[in-house]
Amino acid sequence: MENIKITDNHIHVDPKNGEGPLEVAKKFHRAGGSVMIIPNKPTWTVGASCNFDKAMHLVIKYAEEINNNTEVKAFPIVGAHPAELSRRVEKGMELEIAENMMIATLESAQKLVLEGEAIGIGEIGRPHYEVSPEEMDVHNKLMLYAMELAADADCAIQLHTESAAEKQFLEFAEMADEAGLKRYKVIKHFSGPFVSKNENYGLIPSLIATKSVIVEGIKKGNNFLMETDHLDMKSRPGAVLGPKTVPKRTKDLLQKGILSEEDAYKIHVENVEKVYGIELE
Fold first, then answer.
1. What is the pTM of this model?
2. Of 264, 237, 239, nearest in space to 250 by CA
3. 226 falls within a domain
4. Angle, to 10 degrees, between the axis of helix 245-255 and the axis of helix 211-218?
5. 15 phi, psi to nearest 5 deg
6. What is the SS3 string spanning 173-196?
7. Which CATH number belongs to the domain containing residue 108 in this structure?
8. In whole angstroms, how far apart are CA 69 and each of 4, 9, 21, 65, 232?
9. Residue 281, domain member (yes or no)
10. pLDDT tens-digit series, residues 230-240
11. Domain presence at residue 2
């Protein structure tokens, strides 16, 4: 097990509001972690003057800092959280103008992927809170467009949506088909244990690394990723889960015989390499 790299598929770093990239990476590594997939945080967490371009370039910079100063390998993904649209509409921006801003950001995210600066588009999607039908229509249009961009770039996409079960997985799978995107390139971030193909329709669930979710998920197979969705906010220490969680959870379940070494390698290395088109070994 010592040679198996352990990957957290969705972990944030935030030097302004939290401990920052180096401290988070060091905690992760001390617990046995090797690879961090880091989405950019929303613009408002950076500051009033932050725009989409700056937010995306910051996470690329943070990944470089981790790669240059720790033993962890960090990979950035870039995009625009659906709340970016909602916040602008709430503040009085016309929905069409906000939509066009999101479109431009998604196109910039794709460009960064094509240039090799990031390995995927995300987190993008639709709200987990109530919005008007008109706004939800725009979110769904943007999600489909993001999938089309990901298909053109042959890259992965991380979805932030409401809590998803079989119905939503099928909807997203059909979107991917319409966009021409391989289903296994669509990652449902913050997923429950929907590991069977008749539950996820060929998408890849990124399971939130609570014990109950991982134990339930592994009963159905090992075609999933693991994540903490760590927010790196001093005002919410350890939220959503702390940076040590994925390696500690993996080791604990290995020791208890709930995960095999083959399972761990599939989850943390093979699945990651296949979905993102990267090499970890």
1. 0.98
2. 264
3. yes
4. 50
5. -70, -20
6. HHHHHHHCCCHHHEEEEEECCCCC
7. 3.20.20.140
8. 21, 20, 10, 6, 19
9. no
10. 999 999 999 99
11. no
